[in-house]
Amino acid sequence: MCLVGGCPRLTARSGRCIEHAPAERPWARTSARNQTRDAARRAWDRYVRPRALARDEFACVLCGAREALEVDHIRPIAQGGTWTLDNAQTLCRPCHREKTAQDRRRKNGL
Fold first, then answer.
1. DSSP for 18-55?
2. 50 lies in a domain?
């Protein structure tokens, strides 16, 4: 039965009959929020990340390691941080993992 209330027809796809099926695939659309986030991520990868690495002299700002480097948001985006250079820092993978765990604990009030 079709998901549209009161329609007795059998479904084709998406739980709706042919008459009630959406005209376009809903997953083919990109929301404005996702478009903005994707553009910010591209700018981060192209401009901010290399500048943060160079500014931090290609070393982890916490332990000084020079291998397995990642560029981290000092204040996470989900907690109101920005995609700018002043919110970026170079961390090695182990320090980044620990900082992320601390951010999660802080967010959850632990």
1. TTTS-SS-GGG---HHHHHHHHHHHHIIIIIHHHHHHH
2. no
